[in-house]
């Protein structure tokens, strides 16, 4: 009601002036007149916004293009084609001429920001000596101070930008600053803080795994996986530590993926313990991991638990048996293929039998000869090199 | 009581009911506009930090099956399949379902892609017309391609179901073989799935637009242009409003009623358990989504359906009234059919948002809207004839409705401009904005007319002619026509 009174006090005089009988109109018509005014004003504002946005976008694009060209030339001349580097001078003795980067134009904040963005861009495109020089320039021009200032900002999006800048340029940040951010409620900040922590922490880059209360989303895992597997000089821990103790299921699941990537056989006992977990999605991940690690020693255990497992786990066990290809479970796989009425079980049993290669050549041929046409075609499907899945 | 008094009483009741109906609808539009603005801004803010290329080289990238049914697409099938095979995504397969084409599209594909019949174990989880054979390429360059050759099922739904049966991955992307996809389509659509772990994302959609007048070469979008013809241009505005404002707004409160058949990523397990596409439905895309939601509620799965405000697909809109009318009648019939088939969900609190928001909104403000509008026009004419109209009030109300409609369309275009910058010139934007002024008088009556025709067909159970929808084709030197299943 106060809103209506306010609206009436704001717009009422206008309508009374131009609609002589405004007060005598029924309420419906008064509302319609009022809302017509609102609609017209909103439409005009919307048009103006569209035009202004496009105009501003055009100007910003043109400005950015111009300054980027200028910055690229500077960076190319003084870093990429740095005379000292070209002459083979030791990296520590290379001189960077800072003067061109300290011209008055660089006093403007947006130009400094453009320089930071270009340095990040070049830094991601180059490696080795040039990368060290980009970092040196970043520090010598005190641009990292701007990034640190951003991290301390109240605005979460500014904090994120600061973190991304420091991470991209490989500038060390104290654990005490980043660690609290790794559990931030803001998803993007949390994710960037975790990446930054792994990349920049000097002490224990995986420490946040211990305290992570928020789940690691699949996208977070994708980002972390890339950082972990591509960061040079990172000491890779035994991920069994978190597989055993972490109460965060997404951390456990992620560690299983890392175990596969780093082929950490020492983690097998921890993974075997995970077969008793009640969460069958995690069990699927554990069985998958054991299969990919070719942990043949767990073959018997997998057979033992097979009948009590849900379909997803059973399929994963069949795949693992194929990956092991020990030859000990040919009868089991054959029986599953013949006995099961489930298409996916039959298909995975067949695929695992075929994966055994020569060991099962005769069995597979016998099955093709004696199985029903529906079953035989599953075998042929799995044998066909043109069919991947 | 005298007859005149009866008429007056009915008139008053009708006017009151329409007032409440109209006001509620306008309030809903205003709420959707606010919700979608928030969603678009939030998306923009986060998206600028996202490096989608991470997906390209990761072991953790989820697999996706792209399913594209095709019927008599010989004219463009080769270039369109090439473009589907070149999407920016490392882990996907392309399943082209040849739905009993009577032209030489299959032969062309066999030749172009070195296809050979394989012993494929076809698991018919969803019932379809008989699959004659499955072909794979002997050329490693096309190893992602699977071609399913089946008997015509007289519906895109049947072909899509066959594609789902053949698919290998947990998520499938359904599209039309003649639609043009952005190269990053899969990356953009899979992202919401990877960003959520509390709810199960069962479907994701994105904005579709008109491909008419766009410059398309070899199956790739080269230059986006606002449609030159009026009818497709009206549809462009309608699509922007529907996707950017409507569906984005509904997405915020997890009440998305439909993921378009032209482009949608679906959770395969849920789609299969819900029974797949219904070949007998005239609105198979919405029907599937409603059934997937129903399934989730029945099995207590905390689901979510998402939309992203990015244009990832361009489809050719009908350019002639005849084709347009057939399409819209079919859509309206599909909506009526769906409401009838799922009437138990309406206002049913057991189904939560589905029963109390999605279905009631679509029943009251989508299904009934053309009827209310048609009755309104008749009522107007009657009171004009009877001389009972108050012209002053009538004009005020008409101006109000007209200006409100333009405001909603303009805001949609503005929201769209926040994420979509592919119109090259100011002129195109201005043309689009100006078209909104004529939409209500020149385009909206068509929607009302063809919707009522569709309802009539549904009630009369008239046989629907699946016939052919003539399309112009993309990027050709001259106008060539080709026939596709009437499934748009």
Portion in beta strands of chain B = 15-25%
Strand order of the largest sheet of chain B: 3-4-5-2-1-6-11-8-12-7
CATH 2nd-level architecture of chain B: Alpha-Beta Complex
Task: Catalogue the unreliable spans of chain A.
Answer: none
CATH topology assignment of chain B? Spore Coat Polysaccharide Biosynthesis Protein SpsA, Chain A
Secondary structural class of chain B: alpha/beta
- Amount of helix of chain A: 55-70%
Averaging pLDDT over every residue of chain A, what do you get? 89
How does the helix and strand content of chain A classify structurally? mainly alpha
State the major sheet of chain B: 10 strands, mixed
Total number of beta strands of chain A:
0
What does this structure look like?
The complex is a heterodimer of chains A (389) and B (488). Chain A is 69% helix and 0% strand. Chain A has 389 residues and is an all-alpha fold. Chain A is extended and about 90 Å long. Chain B has one domain (7-488): Spore Coat Polysaccharide Biosynthesis Protein SpsA, Chain A (Alpha-Beta Complex), CATH 3.90.550.10. In chain B, the strands form three sheets. Chain B has a ten-stranded mixed β-sheet with strand order 3-4-5-2-1-6-11-8-12-7, sandwiched between helices. A two-stranded antiparallel ribbon of chain B has the order 9-10. In chain B, α6 (230-252) crosses α13 (426-459). The longest helix of chain B is centred in the N-terminal third of the chain and has 45 residues, at 3-47. Chains A and B meet through α2, α7, α9, α11 and α13 of A and α1, α5, α12 and α13 of B.
């Amino acid at each position: 009601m106060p809103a209506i009174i306010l609206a009436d006090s704001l717009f009422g005089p206008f309508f009374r002036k131009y609609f002589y009988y405004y007060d005598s109109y029924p309420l419906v018509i008064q509302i319609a007149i009022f809302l017509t005014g609102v609609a017209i004003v909103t439409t005009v504002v919307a048009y103006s916004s569209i035009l202004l946005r496009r105009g501003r976008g055009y100007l910003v694009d043109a400005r950015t293009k111009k300054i980027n060209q200028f910055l690229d030339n500077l960076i190319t001349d003084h870093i990429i084609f740095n005379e000292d580097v070209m002459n083979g001078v030791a990296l520590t003795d290379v001189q960077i001429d800072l003067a061109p980067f300290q011209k008055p134009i660089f006093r403007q904040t947006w130009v400094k920001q453009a320089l930071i963005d270009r340095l990040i861009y070049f830094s991601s495109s180059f490696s080795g000596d040039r990368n060290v020089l980009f970092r040196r320039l970043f520090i010598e021009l005190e641009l990292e101070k701007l990034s640190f200032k951003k991290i301390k900002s109240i605005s979460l999006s500014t904090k994120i930008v600061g973190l991304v800048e420091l991470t991209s340029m490989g500038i060390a940040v104290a654990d005490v600053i980043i660690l609290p951010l790794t559990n931030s409620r803001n998803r993007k900040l949390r994710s960037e803080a975790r990446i930054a922590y792994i990349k920049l922490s000097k002490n224990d880059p995986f420490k946040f795994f211990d305290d992570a209360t928020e789940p690691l989303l699949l996208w977070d895992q994708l980002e972390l996986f890339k950082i972990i597997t591509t960061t040079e000089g990172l000491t890779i821990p035994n991920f069994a530590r978190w597989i055993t103790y972490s109460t965060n299921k997404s951390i456990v699941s992620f560690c299983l993926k890392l175990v596969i990537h780093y082929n950490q056989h020492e983690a097998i006992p921890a993974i075997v313990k995970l077969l008793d977990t009640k969460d069958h999605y995690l069990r699927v991940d554990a069985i998958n991991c054991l299969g990919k690690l070719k942990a043949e020693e767990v073959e018997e255990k997998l057979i033992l638990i097979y009948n009590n497992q849900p379909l997803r786990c059973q399929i994963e066990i069949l795949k693992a048996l194929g990956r092991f290809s020990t030859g000990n479970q040919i009868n089991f796989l054959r029986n599953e293929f013949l006995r099961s009425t489930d298409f996916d079980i039959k298909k995975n049993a067949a695929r695992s039998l075929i994966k055994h290669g020569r060991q099962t050549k005769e069995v597979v041929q016998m099955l093709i000869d004696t199985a029903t046409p529906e079953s035989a075609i599953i075998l042929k499907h799995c044998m066909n090199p043109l069919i991947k899945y | 009581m005298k007859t005149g008094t009866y008429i007056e009483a009915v008139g008053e009741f009708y006017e009151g009911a329409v007032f409440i109906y109209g006001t509620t609808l306008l309030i809903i539009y205003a709420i959707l506009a606010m919700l979608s603005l928030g969603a678009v801004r939030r998306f923009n803010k986060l998206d600028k930090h996202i490096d989608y290329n991470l997906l390209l080289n990761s072991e953790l990238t989820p697999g996706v099956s792209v399913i594209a049914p095709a019927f008599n697409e010989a004219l463009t099938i080769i270039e369109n399949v090439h473009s589907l095979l070149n999407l920016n995504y490392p882990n996907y397969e392309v399943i082209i379902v040849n739905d009993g084409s009577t032209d030489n599209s299959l032969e062309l594909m066999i030749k172009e892609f070195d296809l050979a019949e394989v012993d494929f174990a076809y698991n018919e989880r969803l019932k379809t017309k008989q699959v004659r054979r499955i072909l794979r390429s002997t050329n490693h360059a096309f190893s992602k391609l699977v071609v399913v050759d089946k008997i015509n099922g007289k519906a895109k739904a049947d072909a899509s179901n066959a594609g789902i049966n053949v698919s290998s991955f947990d998520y499938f992307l359904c599209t039309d073989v003649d639609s043009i996809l952005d190269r990053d389509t899969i990356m953009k659509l899979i992202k919401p799935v990877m960003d959520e772990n509390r709810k199960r994302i069962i479907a994701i959609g994105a904005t579709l637009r008109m491909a008419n007048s766009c410059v398309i070469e070899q199956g790739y979008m080269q230059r986006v242009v606002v449609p030159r013809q009026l009818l497709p241009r009206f549809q462009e505005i309608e699509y922007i409003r529907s996707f950017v404002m409507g569906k984005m707004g509904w997405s915020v409160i997890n009440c998305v009623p439909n993921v378009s058949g032209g482009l949608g990523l679906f959770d395969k397990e849920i789609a299969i358990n819900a029974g797949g596409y219904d070949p007998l439905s005239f609105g198979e895309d919405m029907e599937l989504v409603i059934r997937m939601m129903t399934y989730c509620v029945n099995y207590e799965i905390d689901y979510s359906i998402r939309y992203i405000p990015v244009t990832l697909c361009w489809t050719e809109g009908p350019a002639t009234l005849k084709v347009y009318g057939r399409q819209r009648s079919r859509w309206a019939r599909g909506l009526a059919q769906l409401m009838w088939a799922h009437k138990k969900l309406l206002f049913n609190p057991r189904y939560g948002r589905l029963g109390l928001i999605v279905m009631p909104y679509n029943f009251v403000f989508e299904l009934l809207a053309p009827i209310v509008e048609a009755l309104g026009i008749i009522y107007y004419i009657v009171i004009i004839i009877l001389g009972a109209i108050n012209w002053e009030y009538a004009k005020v109300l008409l101006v109000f409705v007209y200006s409100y409609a333009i405001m909603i369309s303009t805001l949609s275009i503005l929201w769209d401009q926040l994420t979509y910058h592919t119109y090259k010139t100011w002129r195109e934007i201005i043309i689009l904005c100006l078209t909104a002024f004529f939409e209500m008088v020149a385009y909206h009556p068509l929607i009302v007319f063809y919707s009522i025709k569709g309802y009539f067909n549904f009630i009369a159970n008239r046989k629907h002619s699946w016939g052919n929808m003539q399309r112009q084709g993309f990027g050709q030197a001259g106008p060539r026509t080709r026939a596709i299943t009437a499934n748009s």
